[in-house]
Design goal:
The complex is a heterodimer. By secondary structure, chain A is mostly helical. Helix content of chain A is 77%, strand content 0%. In chain B, helix 3 runs antiparallel to helix 4.
């Protein structure tokens, strides 16, 4: 069953069916969303809090989703807004607990690479970071990323290109 | 692949590995446990409007029917006689009241389905 069908079921007023359909949407999108948020916010705890809040907001406001963009883009848009709100509330804390964030067993060399990339990402401007994470990390098209970030398509292409350059330069400097 | 594309591909590979790892976690049940029933004012507004409409329509119909009717007293209770285009219908006095109640019940059922 595709996202559109599941969203229609979740929008229906029948409680049990709606919850079940929404549960399937959560199962389908939780992993890319949480991984994106870990990279975007830089902290595991913030990412988990924002992801949870995103899904609760999506459930509460599912009737406002009109299908203009993919459900995934809509979900990421909510999460980016939530991340912005949270950043406004909290003093952003820089954390390097990437080993905990990732939870994938890696060799020491892999871990070094991950930490380098993590630090390089953290230094990117916010829109560039979000754009490259959505396009290169989560496999979204430029159009989908543009919908998620509420930014013109042309700007997204620029942000992704600029982010790739900045990331490459930063990584080369690390080496 | 050019050297320029190298860094994004590292990012892609790392994030895809993390996504695969996160996919195996039972995250949805945590979220489902926290979902609260959604409050939607739509069915409530619809119910109120339907009931008001039903009462109004039924009372109008009842008024019209009573206006047309001739009450005939009998030993077993009053009968009402309606005449339409030469056709005469005779029925117990409580019929229009029963029709009124049935109509309201139908409206409640329709609203409940909504």
């Amino acid at each position: 069953m595709d996202d559109t069908h599941l969203v229609l079921l979740a929008q229906a007023s029948d409680g049990a069916k709606a919850k079940k359909a929404f549960g399937q949407l959560v199962t389908r999108h939780q992993a890319p969303l949480r991984v994106f948020l870990r990279r975007y916010t830089g902290t595991h705890q913030d990412a988990e809090d924002i992801a949870q809040e995103t899904f609760l907001l999506a459930w509460r406001h599912i009737n406002q989703y009109r299908g203009d963009s993919l459900f995934r883009s809509w979900l990421f848009k909510i999460s980016i807004r939530e991340a912005g709100r949270k950043a406004g509330r909290d003093q952003r804390q820089q954390s390097n607990d990437l080993a905990h964030d990732i939870g994938v067993e890696t060799s020491p060399t892999d871990m070094e690479k991950r930490l380098d990339l993590h630090q390089a990402l953290a230094r990117l401007p916010e829109l560039e970071r979000a754009s490259i994470l959505l396009c290169d990390g989560c496999g979204m098209s430029h159009a989908q990323a543009a919908a998620a970030l509420e930014t013109p398509l042309g700007s997204i292409k620029t942000y992704v290109a600029r982010a790739r350059n900045l990331l490459r330069t930063a990584m080369e400097r690390e080496v | 692949m050019t050297n320029q594309d190298n860094q994004p591909s590292i990012l892609t590979a790392q994030m895809q590995a993390e996504i695969a790892q996160a996919q195996s976690e039972d995250y949805a049940s945590q979220i489902m446990a926290r979902l609260k029933p959604r409050f939607s004012p739509r069915p409530l507004i619809l119910a109120v409007l339907t009931l008001v409409g039903a009462f109004w329509t039924a009372s109008q119909m009842r008024g019209i029917l009573h206006g047309l009717a001739t009450t005939i007293p009998t030993n077993s209770g009053d009968l009402q006689q309606y005449s339409f285009n030469g056709m005469t219908i005779t029925m117990p006095f409580g019929f229009s009241l029963a029709a009124f109640v049935v109509m309201i019940l139908v409206c409640i059922l329709i609203t409940a389905r909504e």
